[in-house]
Design goal:
- The chain is mainly beta.
- It has two domains: 1-215, Porin (Beta Barrel); 219-225 and 292-461, Porin (Beta Barrel), CATH 2.40.160.
- The protein has helices spanning 196-201, 450-478, and strands spanning 23-28, 34-51, 54-61, 72-73, 77-84, 88-96, 101-112, 127-140, 144-147, 151-155, 170-181, 192-194, 221-223, 298-302, 312-322, 330-333, 340-344, 349-355, 360-368, 371-380, 386-388, 393-397, 401-404, 408-411, 416-426, 438-440.
- Strand 1 and strand 2 (34-51) form a beta hairpin.
- The longest helix has 29 residues, at 450-478.
């Protein structure tokens, strides 16, 4: 299983990206038979130095065309090595346990910083190697490890040290994974061992007992105190049918006739038409489609380690809206209940990653000339996927926090919109684990009421100007005629 199954779903890059293909590889042993099989989708987020005490973060996916040179199959140890240009490798080492299970002892990612197609403006030409230990454990022999959920793995030894650069911080995301090491008889097994994330997502499947393997030099994962909230339910307005109006035809009483006498109406019995009977008319009522309630405000805290005070604070309610052509946009609120916060704190770059069962958001903040702002946002989760790495939002001085209680909306891509409620963030220089003095957004400031006043004054002046011009024009037209 993935010990890091709490980190589900992750990032996409730059503009909106739809991950649509998988990398599929097969490794044969010396006997020519299949000994190792892998089918997976993966991307990487790498933060690297670009000089001047500045860093840059790029995200790229594993190509679907790779080579497996260097892969080895043995009885107790197997190695899967994927090579892709230029000079990048991704390696998994598997071991066969005595309890009829196998595991991935380590995943190592080597990336070449001299490859300017992946790492523009890099000041280094080195090849960097980062590793995460025991990311997959307790996989039954003769079964495939299966994980459809997206799982984020932090790699590297430079992930979080307060007041320092994050260096080459690396995050790796895998999903739609199907791997089998130690294949017997040359045929991939049809049986699977699901990851904990998939088992948790399916309420009918009990999550297997998993021993959490230790991780070396990884930024701590801080779990936010859960806040109970009810997911909004969108109700389609019912169609109201108006009951038909039914009118009974009038009935006339026949006159009484006596032999030899003139026909007369029976005394006291005047022929009358029965009154028309009308059924009550149902007044048509329309049930309005309920609007989505405001999202619950989540309180998210990042600490360098369990014994340290907070280095990043964020409080906000979040809503995402995704537009699909001419259809009504899909909306969802981020539920703080069960959302896990993780990330890194650096001197010039800090990351906040929020992961729930359905979606993951990665906020990247940068510090430039003692002012911070939100530089990039990466969102992955079903249709709610998109990214933008050229933002300049939530700006404030380092040593203070940014606050905006009013609702704000930000177009991340042409299709994806982010709404914030009761926002307050401080990604740098947090003192004693509490927010510093806030710099308010314009909507919260006392000057915001001047905008409608200024607009009203401008419109009034324009109306007066048009009226004066009209009167002057009429007066000039009259002076052009004289009586003879």
């Amino acid at each position: 299983m993935f010990p890091y199954a709490l980190l589900v779903l992750f990032v996409s890059l730059g503009t909106e990206i739809q991950w649509s293909h998988a990398t599929v590889v097969s490794v044969n042993g010396t006997d020519g038979k299949l000994c190792l099989y892998a089918e997976l989708m993966m991307n990487f987020s790498v933060t690297y130095d670009i000089g001047g005490d500045k860093t840059e973060t790029v995200v790229f996916e594993l190509p679907d065309k790779v080579t497996t040179d260097g892969s080895v199959c043995e009885n107790t140890i197997s190695t899967l090595k994927l090579n892709f240009p230029t000079g990048h490798t991704w390696t998994v080492t598997f071991s066969n346990n005595s309890d009829k299970t196998y595991q991935a002892d380590a995943i190592t990612f080597e990336y070449n910083l001299s490859d300017r197609s992946f790492f523009p403006n890099s000041i280094s030409n080195e090849t960097v190697s980062v590793t995460v230990n025991k990311p997959i454990i307790d996989v039954g022999m003769d079964t495939c490890y299966s994980c459809k959920s997206q799982v984020v793995l932090p790699l590297g030894a430079q992930l979080a040290s307060p007041g320092s650069l994050p260096g080459d911080a690396v995050w790796q995301t895998l999903w739609n994974v199907l791997i089998q090491a130690f294949v017997s008889d040359g045929s991939k097994s049809e049986n699977t061992t699901p990851c904990a994330a998939d088992a948790t997502a399916d309420p009918t499947t009990a999550a297997p007992a998993t021993t959490v393997a230790p991780i070396t030099t990884v930024a701590p994962i801080t779990t936010v105190a859960p806040t109970t909230t009810v997911a909004p339910i969108t109700t389609v307005a019912p169609t109201t049918t108006v009951a038909p109006i039914t009118t009974v035809a009038p009935t006339t009483v026949a006159p009484t006739t006596s032999a030899g006498n003139a026909t007369t109406e029976a005394p006291g019995n005047v022929t009358t038409a029965a009154p028309a009977t009308t059924t009550p008319t149902t007044v048509p009522t329309t049930t309005p489609t309920p609007t989505m309630p405001p999202p619950v405000t989540g309180n998210y805290v990042i600490r360098p380690d369990e014994n340290s005070t907070a280095c990043l604070l964020a409080n906000f309610g979040l809503r995402l809206s995704f537009k699909q052509g001419e259809q009504k946009p899909l909306e969802m609120n981020l539920d703080p209940n069960g959302t896990v916060a993780s990330g890194i704190c650096g001197q010039n770059t800090s990351d906040l990653v929020l992961t729930s069962d359905t979606i993951t958001l990665m906020f990247t903040f940068t510090n430039e000339t003692n002012k911070f702002h939100l530089h990039a946002l990466n969102v992955t989760g079903g249709v709610f996927s998109g990214a933008n790495s050229n933002l300049s939002l939530w700006q404030a001085a380092v040593g203070s926090s940014y606050m905006c209680n009013k609702r704000q909306s930000f177009n991340i891509t042409d299709s994806l919109t982010l709404y914030t409620f009761d926002l307050r963030v401080q990604p740098f220089a947090v003192s004693q684990g509490v927010f510093s003095t806030a710099e308010e957004c314009f909507l919260d400031s006392d000057l915001s009421f001047l905008v409608p006043i200024a607009v009203g004054v401008a419109l009034s002046f324009l109306i007066i100007l048009v009226l004066i011009s009209y009167l002057i024009g009429r007066r000039k037209s009259r002076t052009g005629y004289h009586s003879v």
